[in-house]
Structure formats: C-alpha cells, structure tokens
Amino acid sequence: MTTMRAVILPGNKEVQVIDKPRPVPGDGQVLVRMRASAICRSDMSLYYGGKPLVGGEAAKTGRIVPGHEPAGDVVEIGPGVRGVMPGDRVAVYLAIGCGHCRYCLSGYLSLCSEWKCVGFDVDGGNADYMVVPAQNCLKLPDEMSYETGALLLDNMGTQYHAQKTLEVSGNDTVAIYGLGPMGSAGVLIAKARGARVIAIDVLESRLEMAKELGADVTINSAKENVLEVISNLTHGEGVDKAIDASGNPSAQNMALDSVRKMGSVALIGETSSTTINPSEQMIRKLLKVYGIWIHPIWMYEEIAQFVLDHKIPVDRYITHRFSIEQAADAFRMFDERITDKAVFVWD
C-alpha cells in the first residue's frame, strides 16, 4: 500500500502529521499531487475544535485533512473523466455540489443544499496528494504559479467577486476594513480596478503591508477616529464603497457608517452576530449591502485573466512558506498572527 504524509487537526490546537494511504480516484475523480496549499482563517475552527465554521459531521471528527486552497499537478484520472489529463496544472475549487440543482447549474456550488467543502467535509490539500471531482479542477495558465493559483480560490476570488458586485471603478474611493490576507487581496483588486483605497486595521504590520500593496491611505483604528479621518478625506461625504474583511462587529458598523448616501457595502468577514441600526445606517442612506461568499466556479477563469492582465503580484502578501512537516509551527504561528498568508509548498 502506497502511503503519503498528511495533516490532521484533532482539536484543542493539536496538529498531527501522519502517514495515511494515498487515495485512489474513483468515477469522475482525479488524483492531484500537491504543490501549494494555503492556510485560511476559517481553518482555525478546526484547529481549535468544537463547531467548525463550515461542514457537517465529518468536519467535527478531527480526522479530515484540512486545506481548501490547493493547487498541484494531476497525476492520475479515474473512469469517466473528460477534459482533465495527467500533467495538467490545476487549482482545486473548494465547493462540491450535487451538480443538478439550480445553484449548481448556475455555478454557485456552495449554495447547494447537499454541498460539501474540501478540507472540511472531504480531505483537502494539506497532504502530498488529494482526490477531487474532475469538474473541480481549474486549469492554471502556463504563466501562473501554483501559489498564485491557490490564492485565487478564496482570497483573491472572493475579493474579485465582491468588487465586481460593488462595481468598483476608478471613480470610487473604497474603504477596506481588516487587512489580513482577505483584506490584502482587496487592496490589490481595488487598485487594479483603479480605485482610491483607504485601508483600516489595528496592527501596524498589516498597515505597512497594505501600503506596500498600493493602499493610498492607511488608518490605525486603535489610534485614530476612523470616521473623522474618512470624513476629512472625502469632503464630508463618506467613501463610495466599503468592504469588511474582518468579521469584527465594530468594523462592520464602521463600514456602514463610513459610506456615503446611496453607497454600497460588502460584508465578507464571518461573524456570529452584529448589532446594527438599520434605519440610520442603511434605510435612510439608501445603502446597498451585500453578503459575499465563495465566488461561482465559472468566475475562476475571469479572475485568473484579470490577475494576469493587470500583473497583480498576488504572492507579495504571502509572508511565510512551510513544508508539510512544519505544520504544527505553521498553524501555531498563523493562530498567533505571526504570519499573515501562509502556504504549504512542495518541491
């Protein structure tokens, strides 16, 4: 029996790197050898244990291999596979749907009532190999690295989805709240779309990263009155668009408060509850407020082309790279916010 190395997260901040059988692709599936697999803040729900951020009963067992932002090489295909061949360089889309409902047919697999999430319900990319449905394999352009391809699946893809929905353009001033990996991706996308970007966080290291990525103005919300600064920068009007990538209730409220009348807001950061004042913050300002989640699978090719056409340096917000054997350090450092975007890589 051929084995491979894989990460599992039993909970309570325990990380194990184990030997397990290398999977065999079944009908309609392919075997992918990993080249890059990113850590996401949502993985911390598995790291801590208890209720996972997404997923069903399997995600609670602590035996599922995490990693929902993987990219690698197709090395074997199962029966019935068409359109994907050994040797293809691919990123793996994280949502697996039934394939027949209205949401799957429109490309929004994560809205399928039967959907499963790679890295939560089924084994993900933090292993030497993974098996995935062939339809989830999205081919990487020849000039795109595995690391960049992996980051298009969640960070860059979600921000592109958000900003396309908001119709961000060169006419806009955009405030981005929370400058972790998702917010950093937002800075890159917004600048590529021509917007003026105001980046807000409490950590100076993240504000410095935002400046390097092109943010026009940075605000430390622990030291400055964000709404006053934004009012001064926008002649008392407020920003045209705001994106919350933090999930912090205070930041979500600031996003609503800092947008001008008839502006728009995208909420990306996950949180269980937030108290808002709909009348003052939304209704009487005629705001458009969007919840943004996983981009539809068909949008990947559009996102990849946008990144290439605008020469967006996606890998610039990767702060650390680890081997799979360094998984314990990787998750600990990510949890302690020593790293921002961290990626497992294979030679």
Automatic annotation (TrEMBL):
Originating organism: Paenibacillus abyssi
GO function terms (MF aspect): oxidoreductase activity; zinc ion binding
Cofactor section: Zn(2+)
Family under the similarity heading: Belongs to the zinc-containing alcohol dehydrogenase family.
Entry-linked Pfam families: ADH_N, ADH_zinc_N
Residue ranges occupied by any Enoyl reductase (ER) domain in the UniProt entry: 11-344
Superkingdom as given in the UniProt entry: Bacteria
Keywords for the protein's UniProt record, in alphabetical order: Metal-binding, Oxidoreductase, Zinc
Protein name: Alcohol dehydrogenase
